[in-house]
Amino acid sequence: MYDFVVVGVGPAGARFARRAAEEGYDVLALEKGTVGEPLACSGHVSTDIWDYVPDAAREELFENRIYGANFYTGGPDSDAHLFYKSEEVSNVIDRVQLDRTLADCARKAGADVRDGHTVTGIEEHTDHVDVTASIAGEGTAKFEAKMVAGCDGPVSRVRQAAGLPEPGETLHGVLAFTDEVDHTDTVDVHLTVPRFFAWRIPRGEAGVEYGLAAPPGDDVTALFDRLTEAYDVDTDRFCSGAIPIGPPDRVSTDRVFLLGDAAAQTKPFTGGGILYGMTAADCAARHVQPDRPTSLDVYESAWRQQLSAEIRMGHLIRRAYSLPEPVQRLGLRALSGEIAVHMDKPSSFFSKAHLKRLVS
Ligand SMILES: Cc1cc2nc3c(=O)[nH]c(=O)nc-3n(C[C@H](O)[C@H](O)[C@H](O)COP(=O)(O)OP(=O)(O)OC[C@H]3O[C@@H](n4cnc5c(N)ncnc54)[C@H](O)[C@@H]3O)c2cc1C
Question: Of 109, 201, 218, 229, which sees the most CB atoms within 10 A?
Answer without folding.
Answer: 201
